[in-house]
Amino acid sequence: MLTKRWSGKFFNAINGERGRSSLLMLCVLVIALLLAACGGKDKTATKDFDAADEEDAAQNANVKKNVKPQADAEAAVIETDYGKIVIELYPNLAPNMVARFKQLIKEGFYNGTTFHRVDPGLGIIQGGDPLSKDDNPDNDGQGSSPNPNVAAEFSDVPFERGLVGAARAQSNDSANSQFYITLKRQPAFDQRYTVFGRVVDNQSLNNADVIMNAPTATGAERPADKIVVKSMTLQPRANFGT
Questions:
Q1: Which of 17, 114, 173, 232 is positioned for an S-S bond with 110, CB 3.0–4.6 A?
Q2: 3-class secondary-structure state, position 182
Q3: Tens digits of per-residue pLDDT, 96-106?
Q4: Does the CA dihedral 82-71-90-109 come out positive or negative?
Q5: pLDDT tens sequence across 40-92
Q6: How is the chain split into domains, by residue range?
Q7: Do the beta carbons of residue 192 and residue 170 sit within 8 Å?
């Protein structure tokens, strides 16, 4: 707060030429400080992977090509109130993302999280956010694990029905814990997001379809009622069909 004595001198000064010059310099300084402050802050991160203002991730990205996915010896089994979803994992395509996913599963990280985003038009369901455990829906999609982000591991494997991708923010290298399942062919995602798994059977796909078509909150892609991941475990891939 300006003191009365200082404010009097200040306003007398700006009546003269020197005052006008001082005021101009002060304005320039304030603008410079504001610009510096804005430039030093990142945009609010969102793990909703197809955010409208994201950069074109395909540019300057290293894309692994002509590599046939090979399933890991362990599959991820997601248990929900809507049934089971079994996912085989592809460490030969995305070794770091598969390693992160398996690590978090072993830690019980995903238990109690939700599928916080469902979009029948786009054909996706998205989960893996620890913030979805709380009662504040406004922060869903913005959370991650305490671990460092995982760099992009793009490939030319197309995002067909049943593919599992790593959700991220604007940066190519911002994948962490969130994931999504495409339930429709999405060519716009190809070579722009990390493919690291696939839903293995029709029953799992049907259960994912039910989740995708669950009623949503008004004006949102959030399910009206929470769709909770009761547990996520690693089980032998050989226990499940082709």
A1: 232
A2: strand
A3: 999 999 999 99
A4: positive
A5: 333 323 455 554 444 554 444 589 999 999 999 999 999 999 999 999 999 99
A6: 4-39, 63-237
A7: no
Contacts of 97 (CB under 8 A, 6+ apart): 150, 153, 166, 175, 194, 196
Task: Give yes or no for a contact between 89 and 101, defined as CB atoms under 8 angstroms apart.
Answer: yes
Coil/strand/helix, residue 58: coil
pLDDT, one tens digit per residue, over 131-170 is: 999 999 999 999 999 999 999 999 999 999 999 999 999 9
Sign of the dihedral through C-alpha 151, 169, 117, 108: positive
Nearest one of 140, 162, 156 to 207, comparing CA atoms = 162
Dihedral of CA atoms 10, 12, 13, 16 in degrees, nearest 10, equals 160
Please state the pTM of the whole predicted model.
0.77
**CATH superfamily name and code, 63-237:** Cyclophilin-like (2.40.100.10)
User: Which amino acid is residue 133, in one-letter code?
Assistant: K
